[in-house]
Design a protein that fits this description.
By secondary structure, this protein is mostly helical. The chain has helices at residues 3-39, 44-76, 83-106, 113-146. The radius of gyration is 19 Å and the shape is elongated. The two termini are 32 Å apart.
């Protein structure tokens, strides 16, 4: 197995590990927020903002992890420049945007979440640029495949 195959496999396992961690955190999050609230002066609205924000963000984050798993499996199989992969990457940008919108709303109740809003909005832009580059490369590959 060459270096890039090892890297893709490591990323695939990291995605699967993050999925497990996200589920484990969903179980312990109410206790974690109570623990955090005991150490910081955190209002009920702040606790609500953290919990609702986390559980709502689990939806696009879980979908993003599923799409990343699918994308990495295709890349490991040598199927890199496909329009299906471009669609997966574009969906990743939408998931980042969804998390940014959720944390923007929940940031009203717990302002430090606004930091996550900015990070996810920036990540949305970065992933959109990667999707555009991937789209151009895929079109170029398809054009070259049609050339005799």
């Amino acid at each position: 197995m060459n270096h890039s195959q090892k890297s893709v496999t490591a990323c695939l396992w990291a995605v699967r590990g993050l999925c497990g961690l996200m589920i484990a955190l969903a179980v312990v999050m109410p206790w974690g927020v109570q623990w955090y609230s005991a150490r910081r002066v955190l209002s009920g609205a702040g606790q609500w903002g953290i919990l609702v924000g986390y559980y709502l963000c689990m939806i696009p984050a879980g979908m993003a992890l599923g799409d990343m798993d699918r994308l990495l499996r295709r890349i490991r199989a040598g199927e890199v420049f496909l329009m299906a992969n471009v669609r997966l990457i574009r969906r990743l940008a939408w998931y980042c945007g969804a998390v940014s919108a959720i944390t923007l709303f929940c940031g009203y109740f717990y302002p430090p979440l606004l930091f996550i809003t900015v990070i996810m909005a920036f990540l949305c832009l970065v992933v959109s640029v990667v999707a555009s580059v991937m789209h151009a490369a895929t079109e170029l590959r398809e054009e070259n495949d049609l050339t005799i």
